[in-house]
Write a structure and sequence with these properties.
Length: 403
Amino acid sequence: MWRQPKAVWAVAFASVVAFMGIGLVDPILKPIADNLNASPSQVSLLFTSYMAVMGVAMLITGVVSSRIGPKRTLLLGLVIIIAGAGLAGMSETVGEIVGWRALWGLGNALFIATALATIVSSARGSVAQAIILYEAALGLGIAVGPLVGGVLGSISWRGPFFGVSALMTVAVIVTALLLPATPRAERATTLADPFRALRHRGLLGVAVTALLYNFGFFTLLAFTPFPLDMSAQGIGLIFFGWGIALAFTSVVVAPRLQHRFGTLRTLVVNLVLMTATLAAMAVWTDSKAVLASCVVVAGLFIGVNNTLITETVMKAAPVERGVASAAYSFVRFGGAALAPWLAGLLGEHINAHVPFWVGAAAVLASAGVLFATRPHLAHIDDDEPALDELTDQARAVTVGSDS
């Protein structure tokens, strides 16, 4: 799995930097609120605008990539991220930052969906191994993001934004030099293709599962810094531990659990354990030690979930993998977009315990949806040659291809 072409490593490096953007702003949420006189719900819109635009933009990633090619799509996404992050760092109000984070989300959408498809198609080994490599990049980026955000945020809340712009500039150069020119797709993807893909109940069930799970995930990510009430560096270190736990389980633990217990059984149990962790945070919200510990423990469950859900999406429906990724991401980021704002609102108007209870309920509901969808996912653990044959046979019906 680790003996890959330079092109794969170039995309993986850029993915690390791209995923840093998710956790990078976490340590500076409270400093931004303090410096710009904003409420938790207003500052949480930094996540909401980013995720909402990313979710909607996922619908056009296949359209763009199939017309200009994966490499140009990746580079376009990276350039947009550079602009969005840099302009956010120069902002003077929360509203401006929220707006530029939305632009950042557009760039991330173009990059992330194309990066996954590029790694899966270019990497040596099986689809599962390629996804583990992608998740390793994701985990490393998420782990390093809060640490970089905490270090630069201790100097100024603007520092992390400028840091991302600088790192993304390096990623553009590396991708441009090491990723060979990629041809356009034989058939141009349309906006209707992701919606057609969602007709497959297996893919729709996994997407709704991810939406509800992401609701809990981003409640933890966006709201926890407020009851923790620590310095940017302190919060950065806690979420660095969270990211390390996530990276470890996504690469090392998830494949072993999948091999021993099967994908669906592992995911359902994992989601129930994630629910219990959020419930503990709801009960002991006033204890910083419990909150910090639960954040790191949650990383263990999130890592397993990310790897196995991503692999399940790639196999859930007999459609092109880029189309499946776009359809799934469009649905799941709906949960990610709503959760930060709602968590801040509930924390302001009721109390700090309620957001975690709502997040726990959402994750428990995701386990129920996945359990109900299991008849449509019976093939998930089949051998890949059989899955590829099924995909080839059904592609014409699903996405209108003549191949």
